[in-house]
Design goal:
mainly alpha
């Protein structure tokens, strides 16, 4: 059981949350595209952030109690987290070997309504199995290895990473667009994510 207090727990949550959220995915692509088009950027960023906050809170507040109630389940989720993080790191390094790019289509609709955009953001945030696995299952199970206020600090760190990323991605899209059209930028990002995931996996393995 980890008993680290603020700021160590916050930094751990922020680091893991950031590592999980910055990978190329449908949700991030949508936020970036809306930022590039300057359409409903605040609404989209806010919806994605609030959905992440809900999922992280459910994981840290509910699933973590289930994990903590059983020593066997605690051990299983700890080593399951180690395996998952290691595999995630491998995937990031494989992505770095063949980096992708993000572009917008010139023929896209000029202005989509707020309702349609909001519904899309909600769908990509709440109906995405990958997002559920990252937040409720992985972050929730890892939060269960913290005690007392350290668990809250860990969750707040992950939520802070979500807040920082979505608003930075949405409002910084115009400045980031030229950079992330280059495969080299995604390669560097994927390598950083892979190293972070492996470092956290090693820390969990040592704790177990």
């Amino acid at each position: 059981m980890m008993t680290n207090n603020f700021p160590t727990s916050v930094l751990a949550g922020f680091g893991l949350g950031a590592s999980l959220i910055v990978a190329i995915g449908s949700q991030n692509v949508f936020v970036l595209r809306q930022g590039l088009k300057s359409q409903h950027v605040f609404a989209v960023s806010t919806i994605c952030f609030l959905c992440d906050t809900l999922l992280i809170s459910l994981g840290a507040g509910g699933f973590s109690r289930l994990v903590a109630s059983s020593p066997a389940l605690m051990k299983a989720t700890l080593w399951g987290g180690v395996v998952f993080l290691f595999a995630y790191g491998v995937r990031s390094f494989r992505a770095a070997a063949k980096p992708g790019t993000l572009t917008t289509d010139a023929g896209e609709e000029q202005q989509a309504g707020l309702g349609r955009v909001a519904l899309t953001a909600l769908s990509l945030s709440l109906l995405n199995p990958h997002a559920f696995l990252d937040t409720v299952v992985l972050l929730g199970s890892l939060a269960g290895h913290y005690t007392g206020t350290s668990r809250l600090f860990f969750a707040l760190g992950a939520i802070s990473a979500s807040f920082t990323w979505f608003y930075l991605l949405g409002f910084g899209a115009m400045a980031l667009a030229p950079l992330f059209r280059k495969p080299q930028a995604w390669r560097a990002l994927d390598i950083l994510v892979g190293c972070t995931m492996w470092a956290i996996a090693a820390k969990l393995a040592l704790a177990g």
